[in-house]
Amino acid sequence: MTIIEEIRANKLVYLHLNAVPEEYFGETSEMIAALRDNTSIESIQFDKDFIGCVFGRERGELLNQVAKLPNLKEVFLGDADLKVDAIATLLKNAKGLKNISLHRLVMQGIEKDFEGLAEILHQHDSLKGFRIEDCVASNENVDIAKMMKVNAEKTCNPEPVHSKESAIAA
């Protein structure tokens, strides 16, 4: 059974994708469509070659669909260039999200985008854990100090939502 079939069949609680997208599907639209009807996924981890190799605009579309997962509690994004507004949209729409981790990202946006993300992080009702590590702004005139302040306020060592023993990593 392919990852797409497992997502469609609601067989996954934890989805970890770290290889190039072509290892999992032909078009990003296939992944987005599979996620559209999923009710089982609670935790998503996109890192290494995966999210960085999803074409630019499609990254935002994919994260937007991830945010709509009804049982989503945890997101880990790493090793890519991501638009700050795509991360903000993810947070705005993922109402039940408990933890988000951003690791080794080049965050693209202007100062206003970063301030908006910091505000969303600070005001998010269900968010208990936020971690940002080794991330930089693509615009050298942007200081991510406000986000680091939110990081200090919300950082905790929450237990992962998924169980590693039952995790299906691809």
Concise summary:
38% of the residues lie in helices and 22% in strands.
Do you know the CATH architecture? Alpha-Beta Horseshoe
Number of strands: 7
Number of helices: 7
Strand proportion, as a percent range, falls in 15-25%
For the largest beta-sheet, the strand count, sense and barrel status come to:
7 strands, parallel
Report low-confidence residues grouped into runs of 5 or more.
163-170
Q: Ends: how far apart?
A: 12 Å
List the helices and strands and how they pair.
Blueprint: H1 3-8, E1 14-17, H2 28-36, E2 43-46, H3 49-53, H4 56-67, E3 74-83, H5 84-93, E4 99-108, H6 111-123, E5 129-133, E6 136-137, H7 145-154, E7 168-169
Parallel strand pairs: 1-2, 1-7, 2-3, 3-4, 4-5, 4-6
Helix pairs in contact: 2-4, 4-5, 5-6, 6-7
